[in-house]
Amino acid sequence: MSLPHLHHSLALSHLLRRRASHPTVRFPFRGIPNISTSSASLADELSHRPSRSPARKRSVSVRCSLMSADQPPSSVPGSALPKDCLSYSRAYWVTKSLIAWNVDVEDASFHLFASKGANILITDQGIEGYDVKFPLEFDEKGLPENVTKKFPHIQNYKAFRVPSSLDVGSLLKCQLAILSSHVDGTCSNATGLQLPGIVDDLFAYSGPLGAVFGEDAISLYVWAPTAQMVRAFIYRDSSGEHLLQCLSLKEENGVWWGNGPRSWEGCYYTYEVSVYHSSTLQIETCTVNDPYARGLSSDGRRTLLVNLDCDKLKPTEWDMLADEKPKLLSFSDISIYELHIRDFSVSDHTVKPEFQGGYLAFTSKDSAGVRHLRELSAAGLTHVHLLPSFHFASVDDDKRKWKFVDGDRLATLPPDSEDQQAEVMAIKDEDGYNWGYDPVIWGVPKGSYASDPNGPCRILEFRKMVQALNRIGLRVVLDVVYNHLYASGPLGDHSVLDKLVPGYYLRKNTNGFIENSACTNNTASEHFMVERLILDDLLHWAVDYKVDGFRFDLMGHIMRSTMVKAKCALQTLSKDKNGTDGTKIYIYGEGWDFGEIAKNARGVNAAQFNLCGTGIGSFNDRMRDAVLGGSPFGPPLQQGFVTGLSLQPNEHIHGDKSVTDGMLAGAMDHIQVGLAGNLRDFVLTIHKGDAVKGSEVLTHDGSPVAYALSPSETVNYVSAHDNETLFDIVSLKTTMEISVDDRCRLNHLATSIVAFSQGIPFFHCGDEMLRSKSLDRDSYNSGDWFNRLDFSYESNNWGVGLPPREKNERTWPMIKPRLADPSFKPQKIHILAAVENFKNLLKIRYSSPLFRLRTANAIQERVRFHNSGISLEPGVIVMSIEDGHDGIPGMSQLDPIYSYIVVIFNACPTKVSFQLPTLRARKLQLHPLQLMSSDELVKNSLYESSTGCITIPCRTTTVFVEVRNSGYQ
């Protein structure tokens, strides 16, 4: 998911503040006696003292106000205190003994207030409704290093010491407020508190969580240190009111637990939690699922008590799958194919109807889609990356509720009609389609992809899917979305973590409102138990589902330390102990640096430039932008290396010829850095003639192009689920005058740059079939109609109507004439050629280890660029990779077949011919796979040994090889 793709049109629920009407009893601020601060007396006060008004659960009559996160509250008439100040949480309780607050301390005193019934009010007279009050002492030494390291965004806040005698654990179950007052006793400021720091300080926990199955009993453990009461409701069925048992849980150090008989296995449960919610300023009694759920009922209404070690939930020979895994010698050998589970089979009529769109489609050995994957695997592809397949919110698990468009009728409409998108959008939230980037519970497979969303069916079928993919030679990557959650607050079925421990799991701004830069409800991995949940979940998927890799959505919103711990934890897994070889698990993600975490504002985050040296991969958007032009957020028609920049301009005004020539040369520099693994220290000669490091090549905004220290830290791509497909973006950015044959060649040229780069190549499913989404730039909720795949190769889905208005209307004037022009639509012959070309790219990549060098030193030693410097030929990149010779001093020999490889990428609309003296006297020949291909144009590529002259056809990638013992010595 890229930065601007807000997948959900959600209201700003984090700003909605609901508060019930309060009694009119008033208490003057001055003169209220100070309650004893001893632990025993505090516990007694909070447990037994009558509230000044009854403890409040959810009230039907509430007053709602929509407030900006940065809007200053208005003052109460006749008082210095803002009337809504307790709706804000501007102070931080950071350790057992310290509270941080950005407030003026001159001539002021400070007190902490607590109310077990959440009755604190700010009135004209001051603060009312509290049970206890404690003095705080200003600490001139400020916040200690351990606090500012964990919370760098409050490093300049004032520090206030809490009395050491306080029973802090009891206080954390209350509504809390901190108030400053003048020397005359009048109030000057007040606010609520953010508690993650103190919660981590007191209640960080490493024991069991979730349902633990013993020989004779099932134990339930749930972490909820701020809760006042937790009960477990046990049900026999997935729905209905028949309650088997209500179990009151006991609390010990913030963990609530209870035991039940082993006969509960197969039953369902929910928790009832009574806890203070700062979002409503009330004690709320919430029904919530177990965040450590391993099974769910349909739509996650209840948690299933399921033992994942049960033999009935394992496919045949499941426990031996670790020994069947496709071989993987090095992360540099990885290639990744991004795939959506529903896309894969919902339109494949060779799949059984009951399997279409679900996990079991991957077990259909003779289907067109599986045959396609098997052929890609045979060509060298190693990993399938599955878009989110955990329990997400936006698709109903009950297929009977889904709505469908009339595909036969839509197919009769014009290719540029608005009608198709109108019908798709009319049911977009009631059909079976969504990408799934709206997590609810991370640790359970999504029920909509299973034959039956109730019971353990989804567990068995997910395992069958992994096993089936492994057996055709493909490892499985799970797309994980730990950076945000779909819902928050005490209301709604999809809120889980924020019901259990309000204000802890979600990252808040300095006013106490939830951050939403990662779409909505950003999580806070800098908090101990958030990080623990992420690590536990990763280990669960790796061990219980034998997943082979993880792709992190908006990884930059997660702390670097969390990612490093995740990598280390996974690598400790072993086949003997865990049934999983953790050393073969690869992790990568979107290392974008934006929002509240930008520039390490919340701690060192997992952004591109922070990950070097970790071995964790990050998407290389620099290569994407240089190849295609501009960025997904810039002018739609801005061109790049393969789309005609300076070589065949479109209607976009880029500047005069000198400007566009410079832009093209700069794009070629960026691509060359990417071809060399996007290595920070790789030295190359740029178009200005200087020899510089990759980190010294700069983007348009002055950022370094290169950020990696090893090739496995770079994931090279030009297309992904976000933004237009590769064929669509090529069709949009190239001039309308070129033929569909040329667009198909450019699609292949762009893919070849990824395929022949050092690092990890990443391909979006369907790019090898010229996949189109009818120019939709964000198809997350565009239904099957715009997301269709056709493994019969009859159609690429181009021209199925104008893409959905919401994300595309701005570009409809550019899109409409292209869709309406029948010459833009590829025919089956084009699709078949594209599939063959893609398989050849994979075969060539895996024909030599020189395309998959494992270290930065090896790349620096062996990779060279020849058409560079001030006299470069525009639009042509020439890369060589050299190998050593056994028995001859110098570099080691890696390839037993080829001693030298030259790859030429010609983006020009005409053939090019020029001399490269550095290639003179070699015995280069066209790669055998290109000699045997059906692409007649590439066979016209020529190399003349005596002069070093090369001739490359237009819009072609040519690979020359020097067979060992026949060439240069």
Quick synopsis:
It comes from Acorus calamus. The chain is an alpha+beta fold and 969 residues long.
What does this entry look like structurally?
It is a single chain. By secondary structure, this protein is α+β, with helices and mostly antiparallel strands. The protein is 22% helix and 21% strand. Helix 7 runs parallel beside helix 22. The longest helix is centred in the C-terminal third of the chain and has 19 residues. The protein starts with 15 loop residues before the first strand and ends in a 6-residue tail after the last strand. The N terminus is likely disordered. It comes from Acorus calamus. GO terms for molecular function: pullulanase activity. This is Pullulanase 1, chloroplastic.
Mean pLDDT: 92
Low-confidence stretches: 2-41, 47-78
What's the helix count?
24
Main sheet?
8 strands, mixed
Number of strands: 41
Radius of gyration from the alpha-carbon trace, in angstroms: 31 Å
Proportion of helical residues: 10-25%
- Global shape: globular
Structural class estimated from helices and strands:
alpha+beta
Q: What quaternary form is this?
A: single chain
Distance between the termini: 49 Å
Organism: Acorus calamus
Domain Pullulanase N2: 89-201
Domain Glycoside hydrolase family 13 N-terminal: 208-293
Family: Belongs to the glycosyl hydrolase 13 family.
